[in-house]
Specification:
By secondary structure, the chain is of the alpha+beta class. It folds into two domains: 3-117, no CATH class; 143-364, Phosphatase 2c, domain 1 (4-Layer Sandwich). Helices cover 45% and strands 17% of the residues.
Length: 380
């Protein structure tokens, strides 16, 4: 006999003992007190702790006890039909309680089992999302470019285990570096898969990487067959000539990069651009350009930065972003990153991210910093 079966037998025996005690009390009080409702206690106990069959058995024992107390006390009704009616009512109430309580317990058990299954399924999905997130992060650059005359800083955070933000550094011909920041639509694993597809297409673009508008045009054509309904990718791709500081940028439905001059001026490279990648086969992507002088920096970011919300729903916004950048002008790249994150965290005040938040900072060093010389070799 298993432990669970022994436990059920003990509980059934306890219910029967309580039923016997109620019978004794019903018999000894005679006709002066009605104790028939007390039979419902052991019935409910048996239904809850053992099951419906045990509750029905206790209910029948209760009806038998009620009838025995009636005859032993010789409290005969004026007509036999009254006894029949009362007996049927006693049996009906007892059996109804047995059925109802056992059904409630069975429903709660099913709900508990379902909740357990849902929790297990959620944990499995969470583990899968965590694995997807780990794979996704492994696709990002594992180190910053090592260029004389330039410093880099990045921040990458997803609102879920995995996300759709993507950044990359792409070494080109001598003295040129590609910088890409992209944002796949949606959240979680589906966005991460779309991000991975985008990365594969970028690294397979070959000569198109030399020109930002050509790269976005190629991505637009090659992404379309891989997109589901309402899916798209926004992107900003820049090519930096780190011998001259010239920056050429093309955008596809993405936030314009912000150039932070060493003197505090913040300029948005919002000229040209085009629609998001994927939905529009005939899209064209015009370019904007700027030159980074020593001490200048440029910020590439996804909309999770400006759309970070406070407790009352206020967005961080472009104006606040511009003020923070202006105040941080001329500072090292990692210091600009830290000030941005501090400002966003202060604004959010503990509110969780509703969207992925990523940005890349490229800063041209001043001559006094690290003794750089122009004309450095490209990254490996």
């Amino acid at each position: 006999m298993t432990r669970e079966l022994r436990r059920h037998w003990r509980r059934l025996l306890a219910a029967l003992v309580i039923t016997a005690a109620v019978f004794v009390a019903d018999y000894r009080t005679g006709a002066e007190l009605s104790l028939s409702l007390l039979y419902l206690g052991p019935i409910a106990y048996a239904a809850w702790t053992v099951g419906r069959a045990a509750a029905v058995l206790v209910a029948l024992c209760g009806v038998a006890g009620w009838l025995a107390a009636y005859f032993l006390n010789a409290r005969f009704y004026s007509r036999p039909g009254i006894l029949l009616w009362n007996g049927m009512m006693e049996a009906g109430v007892d059996l109804t309680v047995a059925w109802a309580v056992s059904r409630i317990k069975r429903g709660l058990n099913r709900e508990r089992d379902l909740r357990t299954k849902l929790e297990l399924a959620y944990r499995r999905l969470d583990r899968e999302d965590e694995r997807v997130g780990d794979i996704q992060r492994s696709l990002l650059p594992d180190r910053m470019p090592d260029l004389d005359g330039y410093a880099f800083a990045v921040h990458y955070a997803t609102s879920a285990r995995a996300g759709g933000d993507y950044y990359d550094f792409l070494p080109l011909r001598p003295h040129r570096l590609g910088v890409l920041v992209a944002d796949a639509s949606g959240h979680g694993s589906s966005a991460a898969v779309l991000m991975a597809i985008t990365r594969v297409l970028v690294h397979d673009a070959d000569g198109a990487l030399e020109s930002p508008d050509q790269l976005l045009d190629r991505l637009n054509q090659r992404l379309r067959p891989n997109l589901g309904p309402a899916q798209f990718v926004t992107a900003a791709f820049a090519v930096l000539d780190f011998a001259t500081g010239r920056l050429e940028v093309a955008r596809a439905g993405h936030e314009p990069p912000l150039v932070v001059r060493a003197g505090g001026e913040v300029v948005a490279l919002d000229e040209g651009g085009g629609p998001p990648l994927g939905p529009f086969p005939d899209a064209r992507f015009a370019m904007a350009s700027a030159r980074l002088a020593p001490g200048d920096a440029v910020l590439f970011y996804t909309d999770g930065l400006t759309e970070a919300a406070s407790r009352d729903g206020e967005l961080f916004g472009s104006a606040r972003l511009t003020r923070v950048l202006a105040d941080a002008a001329g500072q090292p790249a990692d210091r600009i990153r830290d000030r941005l994150l501090s400002a966003v965290n202060d604004h959010a005040a503990g509110v969780a991210l509703q969207d992925d938040l990523s940005f890349v900072i490229v800063r041209a060093l001043e001559p006094r910093e690290n003794g750089f010389t122009r004309g450095a070799q490209p990254i490996d």
